[in-house]
Amino acid sequence: MKYISTRGGMDPAPFSETLLEGLAPDGGLTIPERLPDVSAEILEGWRGLDYAGLATEVIGLFATDIPRDELARMCRDAYGPENFPTAGVVPLTPIDGGVTLVGLSEGPTLAFKDMAMQFLGQALEYALARSGRVLNVLGATSGDTGSAAEYALRGKEGVAVFMLSPQGRMSAFQRAQMYSLTEDNIHNIAVAGVFDDCQNLVKALSGDLAFKRAHSLGTVNSINLGRIVAQVVYYFWAWLRATDALPVADRGDFEVSVTVPSGNFGNILSGHFAKSMGVPIRRLVLAANENNVLDDFFRTGAYRPRSAADTHATSSPSMDISKASNLERFVYDLVGRDPERLAALWRELDGPGFFDLSAELPRFAEEFGFASGTSTHADRVATIRAVHAATGIVVDPHTADGVKVAREHVEPGVPMLVLETAKPAKFPEIVREAIGEDPGMPEHLAELLGLPQHVTEMADDAAELRDFIAARAVTP
What we know:
42% of the residues lie in helices and 14% in strands. By secondary structure, the protein is α/β, with parallel strands linked by helices. The chain has a domain at 92-110 and 225-435: 3-Layer(aba) Sandwich (Rossmann fold), CATH 3.40.50.
């Protein structure tokens, strides 16, 4: 299996190499030359595997350059009980209204990003050791990517992390998880602006090939293909667990739908990969918050990213994103994997600021199975309150966005799964507003809010960021 760029200017490369590069050399995103096929027979044969075993099989279809015994070790280390103490790693929990939650927040930072980041930490360490290289990770976070990356990479040899976050746009708990870390290889930078400004800085430095090579820059944002691949695993797992109780004869093509709270489009892109590989998914439902650029795109075919000034600060802050980096990978499929047409569309974003694919709109649902919807603060509060009243379960605001939109797309006879985003303890203010009490805080994390915080505030300035990294980057 080799990987190419969405914009056509990259020689095919193996999986391990794409882990270290971030953006492709031509400014595009790496994608598989082809997605592997998984037959119903193979899928059924994986039913008895534990999560680490399933991850080995699924990721092994992509990481063909990593010896299978090494890959199995990485997956055992990533998804072992020290990181994911909950039985099964990813539990499925039915709630009201025909919806089932897929529990992705059982990891060390209580967010779904741990599912990919713990594997990526193992894979990066392996790739660096084999190549004799170092890596300075440059990333941007709207809330959970940063802590998941830092917890996966803190203290690792040959790696430094430079994580950008928007000043004042994350919850107090999210800030505490990141800024309280004291390892010398972790550098938190709070940028004056919104997440899209942070993301643009990452792209600017990643696109400066001379600086990137001189300082061994890479990324663990959701544009890193290793994260996309690792997230594919839990779509397989969720379908297998959702169909465990069915008679064997009824399992093969039994479809489920999956709703995904979405900001940067990486999580739902993994679902697109899984569906394309053979997981029987009927609908992939994108749930947006007030920053509903993606909902507009999937309803109209017109993609119009908003400016930083027009990006709302909401009570589901990890989704406060206007320009979704991973959408490029889906649009590449939508335009027939034509890199020239894809590049032309992205030039339109740099010019008029939008592109229109409304002529392709019927294919969004018919061929690719996409649907979408928007949730507001009032919807989140009402959903958290209703789920708690009916089940005693408290969901976080992003998952509440997912549940609200999922209910609008439930079909008779088709189970609706909602991918959980994080534990509600990370967002106590909205939980308190919804149910009149604080969510429970895990005992081992309760002290975080009182620890000293270490963060550098910085203007939205690429030159200042370059100087900061150059002075602190790890070198061979």
